[in-house]
Amino acid sequence: MIPLDPDNWTLLESVLVFAGCALAIALAGTRIAGVVDQLADRTGIGEAAAGAVLLGASTSLGGSVLSVTAAWNGHAELAVSNALGGIAVQTFFLAIADIAYRRANLEHAAASAPNMMQNALLICLLALILLSPFLPAVSLWGIHPVTPVLLGFYLYGLHLVRGATDNPMWHPRRTRETREDTPDDTDKMPALPRLWGEFFVLMVVLGLTGWTLESAAAGIATHSGMSQTLVGVLLTAISTSIPELVTSVAAVRRGALTMAVSGIIGGNAFDTLFTAAADIAYRDGSIYHAIPQQVHFWVALTLLMAGVLMMGLIRRERYGLGRIGVESVVIMALYLLGVSVLLSGQS
């Protein structure tokens, strides 16, 4: 019987709780993808907006709760490494989804103005986080001035994404491999109240598992001797990002390519708010100035991966290397390189 008090968990008990939470996140994340796809058609908001806001926010909820809980408990390194490590691994997952789509390069088939706008927003938010430690370490009520700027910039970015959806000033050239958002038959779907109810129940499940996962991750770091950065980037970030992998591959197989890409990129932009939320919860000053050098490296690497993805969306290579784009290969190589650098620094 595992004790209720996380402080009394052994390494084995922490690992068992961690694995159980990761499984629950995977199951709930898998189901929520189908619910959001139906909500997109039922409400008429479209796959791009639903993927960016509903799917991105809901599948990221577990990681968000984990980062806020870690910051509240004074684990600043775990909080920011989980928040920012998840963005890199989710970009890596987009390359995996590209492999799952066999007809053409995913960046070619799902190119759209909203997806490119979301990726540009992500780059700006990451750059702002990277600049924050070089600003004065001032805070008001324990909150650094960058935090409200991040929140405001994100909301303004969503406004721009919505504008790019409703009235795009740029259109990708259509080819026979281009796949656009086409609503399914809503008559065969559950009623709208039932869909919203299931959506919110699944969000609660993801939030509770994220809260429990933080205690397990902190226990693993304490008992194993691993740094909180390594635990955050390689364990919690990957486990809380499992829904993004499952939902993006599932969306590709359903033919919802716009949602597959927007769910990842939109979720990445939303994940930058983990840092802002963690700064509010962190009571020892500015969390941006508690970010270790390893996390600075990870943010810079993630910026590079996002830039490569942007070039892929603009270039729109049709087939690439065996139906996977060159950009996807580069993204996977960059992520694996980053993991090897972190592991070599741990040894």
Helices and strands, with pairings:
Blueprint: H1 11-43, H2 47-59, H3 61-72, H4 76-100, H5 106-109, H6 113-131, H7 146-166, H8 192-224, H9 228-240, H10 242-254, H11 257-281, H12 293-315, H13 326-346
Helix pairs in contact: 1-2, 1-8, 1-10, 2-11, 3-4, 3-8, 3-11, 4-9, 4-10, 4-11, 4-12, 4-13, 6-7, 6-11, 6-12, 7-11, 8-9, 10-11, 12-13
Question: How would you portray this structure in words?
Answer:
- By secondary structure, the protein is mostly helical.
- It has one domain: A middle domain of Talin 1, CATH 1.20.1420.
- It is built from 13 helices and no strands.
- It has helices spanning 11-43, 47-59, 61-72, 76-100, 106-109, 113-131, 146-166, 192-224, 228-240, 242-254, 257-281, 293-315, 326-346.
What is this structure, in a nutshell?
With 347 residues, the chain is mainly α. The protein has 13 helices and no strands.
Q: Which residues sit in consecutive blocks of at least 5 with pLDDT less than 50?
A: none
Rg (CA only): 19 Å
Please give the alpha-carbon distance between the first and last residues: 34 Å
- Give the oligomeric state of the chains in this entry, treating copies of one chain as homo and distinct chains as hetero: single chain
CATH topology: A middle domain of Talin 1
CATH superfamily: NCX, central ion-binding region
Helix percentage range: over 70%
When the domains are counted, the total is 1
